[in-house]
Amino acid sequence: MSEHDDAAHMRAALGLARRGLGTTWPNPAVGCVLVKDGQVVGRGWTQPGGRPHAETEALARAGEAARGATAYVTLEPCSHWGRTPPCCDALIRAGVARVVVAAGDPDGRVDGRGLARLREAGVQVETGLFQAEAVALNAGFSRRVTLGRPVVLLKLATTLDGRIATARGESQWITGPEARRYAHALRARHDAMLVGSGTVLADDPDLTCRLPGMARVPLARVVADARLRTPLTARLVRTARSLPSWIATATGHKPAELAPYQQAGVEVLTVPRGKPGGLDLGALLATLAQRGVTRVMAEGGAGIAAGLLRDGLVDRIAWFHAPGIIGGDGLAAVQPLPLALLSAMPRFHRVASRPLGADWLTEFERREP
Fold first, then answer.
1. What is the pLDDT of residues 198-225, one digit of tens each?
2. Which candidate, 182, 28, 51, 1, places its Cα nearest to that of 105?
3. Cα torsion for 323, 324, 329, 330, to the nearest 10°?
4. Of the residues 36, 293, 355, 357, which has the fewest C-beta atoms closer than 10 A?
5. Do the beta carbons of residue 320 and residue 183 sit within 8 Å?
6. Residues contacting residue 12 through CB under 8 Å, at least 6 positions apart
């Protein structure tokens, strides 16, 4: 099979893997394409909840046609027993002759063992095709298993001068419908939403994805609320029995203070305090990672944005700019960090930019030192 064909089939596998973003946690989102005699005989991607795995799905669709086929997989096939058997064993039993893998699995239970088992069974193994794309796609999974925290996207929707509301707090709507639809699509590709208690008090959000067909797995809705200010009448509390709602609060609250939230179906997470006076956001992200969360989208408010930026916890920014100006008395998107020197400023580099109706979206990634 030609290099051109290999590239085309791996691109297809990456496209399949992206379908799982936001639905497969704590597992990675993986895609698999099976090809025999130049024809695609099976396709699969990791299903909601992380199983069945992509290889299992593709093999089931291919049936006997998998024997002698080439498998294009975006992540190294697993080699350990979990709730499902190892995928490398499934590929071997099916008689797959060749496996092309984009990236290795950083999970210590796999990390080269899957590739080794395939080679020991006589399967031809090739690696590294579109490796950078595959690594980026599962950056959240990789960070969770290697660094103990999820990837964080900070979403901001502001005027041209960086304001998120008027001095009186009016903010709906700064951006137009196209930008808001795109923001909901971003929600669908993440495992959890993170807001501060100030946002809950000001906006009473529901933090769901309201695009038809894209809310297959409910987002975990997380409120950083050190002082336990979230009203029991808030939408996030009233819907907690049907949609996951987690309130992260500081240690030291009395059980009687937590009980009304727990009785409403809210999961209460206790996190150490940070500076100044809020939660230790690094500890909060570590707690989310322990629960399997790989991708977090932070939507506000300005205090959460400042805390994440100050602690170096923002990996990517999606900044929606509306073509209007509120002025200096409006509410800023980011509270004071504060910074004494420009050299201490968090820096990012632009990776994408596009118009959305009358608004403009610019995406940034963190610039590593």
1. 999 988 999 988 777 665 678 899 999 9
2. 28
3. -60
4. 355
5. yes
6. 31, 33, 40, 43, 72
